[in-house]
Amino acid sequence: xxxxxxxxxxxxxxxxxxxxxxxxxxxxxxxxxxxxxxxxxxxxxxxxxxxxxxxxxxxxxxxxxxxxxxxxxxxxxxxxxxxxxxxxxxxxxxxxxxxxxxxxxxxxxxxxxxxxxxxxxxxxxxxxxxxxxxxxxxxxxxxxxxxxxxxxxxxxxxxxxxxxxxxxxxxxxxxxxxxxxxxxxxxxxxxxxxxxxxxxxxxxxxxxxxxxxxxxxxxxxxxxxxxxxxxxxxxxxxxxxxxxxxxxxxxxxxxxxxxxxxxxxxxxxxxxxxxxxxxxxxxxxxxxxxxxxxxxxxxxxxxxxxxxxxxxxxxxxxxxxxxxxxxxxxxxxxxxxxxxxxxxxxxxxxxxxxxxxxxxxxxxxxxxxxxxxxxxxxxxxxxxxxxxxxxxxxxxxxxxxxxxxxxxxxxxxxxxxxxxxxxxxxxxxxxxxxxxxxxxxxxxxxxxxxxxxxxxxxxxxxxxxxxxxxxxxxxxxxxxxxxxxxxxxxxxxxxxxxxxxxxxxxxxxxxxxxxxxxxxxxxxxxxxxxxxxxxxxxxxxxxxxxxxxxxxxxxxxxxxxxxxxxxxxxxxxxxxxxxxxxxxxxxxxxxxxxxxxxxxxxxxxxxxxxxxxxxxx
Length: 617
Hints:
This protein is mainly β. Among the domains are: 118-215, no CATH class; 482-612, Jelly Rolls. Helix content is 1%, strand content 51%.
């Protein structure tokens, strides 16, 4: 069921196939928009190898032909977009990305450190020694600088005569390198960037200026980390990722379309450890806010027994004299509950909503001496149901926000997601349980015509929740059962008195198919028993032949299609049997084509103060 208006329930939208259906098992999904077109990139298990396929607006699937299209097919792969690149992560493969302009795949792979260059001086004799180091570059970073090569008995570089004094450099190629950067030093201590070339040789004529702000890296940024979760800050295209050893990586800010996320600390990137060796595990990172509303990077760490931690990261600057140092500052938020399910963590209405393993929580703000984040429980009314969620498999849960509702696909007493619950935040966090749908994934896809599709991956079928052009009460050709119920109606504050209920009325709007109302009561002896039911069956009435004129048609002619109509209002009535201590009811339907709005339920009767429940003992 879903609550379509205040206190009005209706069977949920059915599921119908969306677009071309996959023939290979799906093991990941990423959505990207580039060049004015939005696409879905799927990871599929292609004969034991994860391969990326592309699809636009439900059309045909096409595999990316790149030779590097090979991934771990046993884990779920996700992606985040930064400019023209779609970065892929799954907790197993090293970081890679799809170049959205060409659909080429680039994988972070460590380049070897170049050897020392050969330096040969030509020109006037002097007493200066010149030192050079080489680094190798690829599309994702820069290697560490190799050992230095030099030539001595040379003149000072500033005194070189153009075309007469120069140093010829050459070095061995590094496999996988797309270019090389040359660093220069006059004392063999500090090496500064001089020039970048695609060749394995270069001539220093002394006219190329030295970049005093860029020194030779001692580390290698071409070897990609393995990320469990990623986030891209849209303000500056800065890329963040977390690893299983509790490191939060951050790239140099300002990632441009023609460069890649560079996590080298020598280029403005780096990593910071959070609770390394502690009792929590980092599992989620996103751009959020602190209690004051300042934009910060927020990191969740899963704890145990429904606990955990939230951390904030901001970049601070210290100035000393003419020098400024920018560093990552990590501090713990006041909310002491991290998510158990990163894919089920939803950012909506300036809050994070997520399952903690103990309950569902949302980050709010509490006004104190300073404003602080709070993690408040939003699932008090469904506590008995929370105990049925499998904590060992809760990391597989997924969530999505749509039209002021938070949808969660959860493993309820199962090793896989088998039910969808939703929380209606527009109706004071009203919970609706449970849609028995085994959704591996939930997402919203806006096609290139501007139509939003609320989709679910069920089994290996791509389905869409929609009432448009679909058969009510049927998922992918199979009918299902809906139920809305109430428990329990009593006649006094203590729930002790007996009552006599003469009639119960259920008002249905636009009913179709077969709809049944059932009532269950608790007798004076404490025995629960069925006390009545009523059923509505859809009746179709044909309209009159308003446009069938005798002067145009003979009696045996076909009049063509004949319109029909059904009831717009129906009322089911139950007359409960006997004196009751409490009354429960439900309305159900289980046939394809059934539909209705339950607009009102009314019970007529009176309480008998002199009679109370008696169960013996």
